[in-house]
């Protein structure tokens, strides 16, 4: 029996009761992708991208709007904080692996969409390009994870990787002037 009060479940419930068929994983991926691409943390831009993902003519409710802004504030804290960890909005571990793997694929698709829509410089390092290629591959292989110890292990490895990938890209896409100012001189 899945935990009914996990953040993922609560967000999924909020979205479905508001008439949105988007998964919280895809939404969170979109947010992290656009943030890692240097879109900044302007609420209006994020809400516009989220609304586009919803593909809904309906105005988003205050509850959903507040949840989206809260999610953005959390991501902003994770990307700009000192902890160097990102908490992924995915189903809890007691959900069948197939569902968690599907959510992982949705997260990757959302991330790639958010990154692609907002990244303008086209000057990623080889490592940055590899991260995007990895995410594209992960988005495709979620069906390959099987209910087994190996499948669980693979899932956990992929999750760990996805917790650092946005930070790597976020650091890389920061403006060079910011990066230069942040580096101590070697004199």
Automatic annotation (TrEMBL):
Any GO CC annotation of this UniProt entry: cytosol
Pfam families per UniProt: UPF0149
InterPro entries (UniProt xref): YgfB-like (IPR011978), YgfB-like_sf (IPR036255)
Family statement drawn from the similarity comment of this UniProt entry: Belongs to the UPF0149 family.
Entry protein name: UPF0149 protein GHO30_17160
């Amino acid at each position: 029996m899945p935990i009914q009060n996990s953040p993922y479940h609560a967000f999924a419930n909020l979205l479905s009761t508001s008439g949105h068929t988007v998964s919280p994983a895809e939404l969170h991926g979109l947010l992290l992708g656009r943030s890692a691409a240097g879109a900044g943390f302007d609420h209006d831009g994020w809400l516009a991208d989220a609304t586009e993902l919803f593909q809904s003519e309906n105005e988003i409710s205050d509850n959903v709007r507040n949840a989206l802004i809260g999610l953005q504030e959390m991501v902003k804290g994770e990307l700009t904080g000192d902890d160097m960890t990102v908490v992924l909005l995915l189903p809890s571990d007691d959900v069948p692996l197939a569902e968690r793997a599907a959510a992982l694929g949705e997260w990757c698709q959302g991330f790639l969409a958010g990154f692609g829509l907002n990244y303008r410089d086209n000057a990623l390092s080889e490592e940055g390009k590899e991260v995007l290629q990895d995410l594209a591959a992960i988005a495709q292989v979620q069906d390959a994870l099987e209910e087994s110890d190996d499948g669980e292990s693979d899932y956990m490895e992929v999750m760990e990787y996805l917790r650092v990938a946005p930070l790597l890209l976020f650091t890389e896409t920061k403006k060079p002037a910011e990066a230069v100012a942040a580096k101590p001189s070697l004199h």
